[in-house]
């Protein structure tokens, strides 16, 4: 999948504005993952309705508060925003692991033509080798939520990781200090429920 972005720069959505511009960095970020290309705009009314759903969808599959291990999923935002400021403002409300093309990169138009994107929002789902799984998954995401990722994973024939990559530990330090306590509390309350159910059955 990195071949799609050969010679291009992708920007990581965080305050440092890190850029993934070497083939090695791009390869590490995109290898063996389902790629979502999100064509959208912060100003478009339909996008404003859909973007929070996509944000929740992505977080539930990649944030370790919800999952033990981040899913093999990467998202690149392909902006139709009118200005760089509007693009930045929109991205500030989205997950830090999202990637995007620089605002002035004309490759955005090439991607629109290649994947026949006419209207936004549009989410093109690609296998790691660049083959299209879904031309526009907006309705599928609305209807099924994170459950549709399993279908894409099977279609992409991903090799399941039995170990955690270094990137899975990104931003661990910036997590809330109460995060382990919340996890423990959730675990304890779940165990208590199971004990109560066991007593009722006895």
Describe this structure in words.
Residues 1-143 form the Thioredoxin domain. InterPro entries: RdCVF (IPR029520), Thioredoxin-like_fold (IPR012336), Thioredoxin-like_sf (IPR036249), Thioredoxin_domain (IPR013766). The structure is a single chain. This protein has a single domain (2-163), classed as Glutaredoxin (3-Layer(aba) Sandwich). The chain is 40% helix and 14% strand. It is built from seven helices and seven strands. Strands 2-1-5-4-3-6-7 form a seven-stranded mixed β-sheet, sandwiched between helices. 30% of the residues are buried.
Strand content bin: 5-15%
What's the CATH architecture?
A: 3-Layer(aba) Sandwich
Q: How would you state the average pLDDT, rounded?
A: 82
The percentage helix is 40-55%
The SS-based structural class is alpha/beta
Count of spatially separate domains? 1
CATH level 1 name: Alpha Beta
- The poorly predicted ranges are 162-178
- The CATH homologous superfamily is named Glutaredoxin
What is the overall number of helices?
A: 7
Main sheet characteristics: 7 strands, mixed
Number of strands: 7
State the separation between the terminal residues, measured CA to CA: 55 Å
> What does the oligomeric state look like here?
single chain
| CATH fold call | Glutaredoxin
Shape: globular
**What strand line-up does the widest sheet have?**
2-1-5-4-3-6-7
| Rg calc | 19 Å
């Amino acid at each position: 999948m990195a071949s799609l972005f050969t010679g291009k720069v992708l920007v990581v959505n965080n305050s440092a504005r890190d850029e993934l511009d070497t083939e090695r960095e791009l390869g590490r970020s995109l290898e063996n993952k389902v790629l979502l290309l999100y064509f959208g705009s912060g100003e478009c009314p339909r996008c404003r309705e859909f973007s929070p759903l996509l944000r929740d969808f992505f977080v539930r599959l990649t944030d370790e508060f919800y999952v033990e291990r981040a899913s093999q999923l990467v998202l690149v935002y392909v902006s139709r925003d009118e200005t760089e400021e509007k693009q930045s403002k929109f991205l500030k409300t989205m997950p830090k692991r999202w990637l995007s093309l620089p605002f002035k990169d004309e490759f955005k138009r090439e991607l629109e033509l290649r994947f026949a994107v006419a209207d936004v929002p549009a989410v093109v789902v690609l296998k790691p080798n660049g083959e299209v799984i879904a031309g526009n998954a907006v309705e599928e995401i609305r209807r099924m939520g994170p459950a549709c990722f399993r279908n894409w994973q099977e279609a992409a024939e991903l090799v399941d990781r039995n170990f955690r990559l270094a990137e899975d530990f990104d931003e661990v330090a910036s997590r809330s200090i109460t995060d382990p306590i919340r996890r423990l509390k959730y675990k304890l309350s779940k165990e208590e429920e199971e004990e109560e159910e066991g007593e009722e059955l006895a």
